UniProtKB/TrEMBL annotation:
Protein name per Swiss-Prot or TrEMBL: ABC transporter ATP-binding protein
Pfam families recorded: ABC_tran (PF00005)
Segments forming a coiled coil: none
InterPro entries recorded: AAA+_ATPase, ABC_transporter-like_ATP-bd, ABC_transporter-like_CS, ABC_transpr_LolD-like, MacB-like_ATP-bd, P-loop_NTPase
CDD domains cross-referenced by the UniProt entry: ABC_MJ0796_LolCDE_FtsE
GO molecular function terms noted in the UniProt entry: ATP binding; ATP hydrolysis activity; transmembrane transporter activity
A Gene Ontology cellular-component term: plasma membrane
Keywords per UniProt: ATP-binding, Nucleotide-binding, Transport
Residues covered by the ABC transporter domain: 18-254
Positions of transmembrane segments: none
Taxon lineage: Bacteria, Bacillati, Chloroflexota, Ktedonobacteria, Ktedonobacterales
């Protein structure tokens, strides 16, 4: 049986899972400095669905890259379950990411020549099998597909699935190694609004199984359904709900 709660015991529900403190990202190109993120401070409560909302170019993906340790802040820090990310080497960060973060992409990024279950098995292969012996991997992959209502698609190729079904398989793949956090950048940006809503609900339901879900979207309606959120504009926090965050720039026309 897949133990989704395995990693949940190192923080109590409601305590901050992820803390971002005074995070700034400045890019210097041809002697010109551009500030992509400006003094961002917020916390993500554990076992919540947390949205980062904002229009195109507001800095959402830049921020996600800091949270996953793919990019490093110019100033400030990202503290994940008590550990500061920038203190680690690239190799240590990659290993940490493999164990702790499941990433779900807008365009699913499934391997087209592999069936749904083989796509999940590949993640187990690459991630070390989530501490399970190899003979248990197929059962685990099937359980991951079932958790997201994709159990009946196990033997289908991605081309034989709708966009929403492919995204379910991609979520199952992200669950494969049982990471405590799932991070997703516009997972429903390529889907119709009804399917987007269903995928959002599936991700929200994972919080009851111990997962913390960080969900980036430019859709304010979806974002407003989350337990906690921040809204970005021009690299600053302009609105927050359900969590501790510092508003760095007041915006008159922010809808919550
Ligand atoms: N490497 C880079 N060099 C210069 N500017 C960059 C770089 N990466 C991002 N930017 C700029 O930073 C800003 C924020 O980009 P980012 O990709 O984080 O936005 P976003 O909120 O994810 O937008 P979208 O909703 O379109 O995905 C944009 O103006 C973008 O052009
Ligand atoms: Mg983006």
């Amino acid at each position: 049986m897949l133990n989704l709660d395995k990693d949940a015991d190192y923080q109590l529900p409601g305590s901050p899972f992820l803390q971002v403190e005074h995070l700034t990202r400045v890019i210097t190109a041809r002697a010109q400095k551009t500030t992509l993120l400006n003094d961002i401070t917020f916390t993500v409560p554990t076992q919540s669905l947390f949205t980062i909302n904002g229009p195109s170019g507001s800095g959402k993906s830049t921020l996600l890259n800091m949270l996953t340790g793919i990019d490093r802040p110019t100033e400030g820090s990202v503290i994940f379950a008590g550990q500061e990310l920038k203190a680690q080497s690239e190799n240590a960060l990659a290993r940490w990411r493999g164990r702790n973060v499941g990433i779900i992409f807008q365009f699913f990024q499934l391997i087209p020549t592999l069936t749904a279950i083989e796509n999940v098995l590949l993640a187990l292969e690459l991630g070390g099998g989530g501490n399970l012996p190899r003979q248990a991997w197929r059962e685990r992959a099937q359980i991951c597909l079932s958790i997201v209502d994709a159990g009946s698609f196990a033997q289908r190729l991605p081309a034989e699935l709708s966009g929403g079904q492919q995204q379910r398989v991609a979520i199952a793949r992200a669950l494969a190694n049982d990471p405590p956090v799932l991070i997703t950048d516009e997972p429903t940006g390529n889907l119709d609004s009804r399917t987007a809503h269903a995928i959002f609900t599936t991700l929200a339901n994972l919080t009851t199984q111990g997962k913390t879900v960080i969900y980036v979207t430019h859709d304010p309606q979806l974002a407003s359904l989350a337990q906690a959120r921040i809204d970005l504009l021009d690299g600053q926090i302009v609105n927050t709900h359900g969590t501790k965050a510092t508003i760095t720039s007041r915006q008159e026309e922010v809808h919550s």
